[in-house]
Amino acid sequence: MINSKTSLEELNLMNANTLMAQLGIEYLEIRSGYVKARMPVNENTMQPMGILHGGSSLALAETLGSLGSAFMVGLDEYEVRGSQISANHVRAGRKGWVIGEAKIIHQGRNTHLWNIDIKDEDGQLVSSCRLTNFILPRNSQK
Q1: Mind listing the pLDDT tens digit for each residue in 10-53?
Q2: Exposed, middle or buried: residue 1 (CB in 10 Å: 0-12, 13-18, 19+)?
Q3: Of 19, 45, 127, 130, which one has the fewest beta carbons inside 10 Å?
Q4: Domain-located, residue 1
Q5: Is residue 3 situated within a structural domain?
């Protein structure tokens, strides 16, 4: 289970056989209210026009915000469910890596709101995303 004691190494190992592994997402830093990861711009994340697919950016953003919420509340007691995500794609990712940084901007009892900025290796903004998560007590899941 994911909680505030879960290490980066453990989190990265949990990605085996998931979408995160298919996209090559690698977690770089995590602490309460903040998650940083990178994702390659390659044949697994590009669209046919040779640029980063917007859906890949959204998958990275939702992964970071959802992981951040899980890390904060602990999945032994809570479920984290994405409620809404939006993105503004402002620049094409073309090569190398994109780096996503998720920062919590609202931590309520039942909802978390995250801002996730995805930048290229030069620090140029590629996408800016907003994610809302529902935080649900596990005992209500039946």
Answers
A1: 999 999 999 999 999 999 999 999 999 999 999 999 999 999 99
A2: exposed
A3: 19
A4: no
A5: no
What is the rounded distance in angstroms from the CA atom of residue 116 to the CA atom of residue 136?
22
Range of the domain at 113: 8-140
Of the candidates 115, 104, 122, 103, the one whose C-alpha atom is nearest the C-alpha of residue 41 is 122
Which domain CATH number covers 122? 3.10.129.10
Greater pLDDT, 46 or 140: 46
Q: What is the pLDDT of residues 15-25, one digit of tens each?
A: 999 999 999 99
* Number of compact structural domains in the chain: 1
Looking at the annotation, which residues are catalytic? 62
DSSP code, position 123: S
Distance CA 22, CA 25 (A): 8
Asked if the structure places residue 107 within a domain, the reply is: yes
List, in sequence order, every residue forming a beta bridge with 12; answer none if it has no partner: none
Asked if the structure places residue 93 within a domain, the reply is: yes
Q: Which of 62, 66, 80, 69 is nearest to 107 (CA)?
A: 69
Evaluate if pTM is beyond 0.85: yes
Q: What is the edge-to-edge ordering of all strands in the sheet holding 97-107?
A: 26-31, 34-40, 97-107, 111-120, 125-137, 78-89
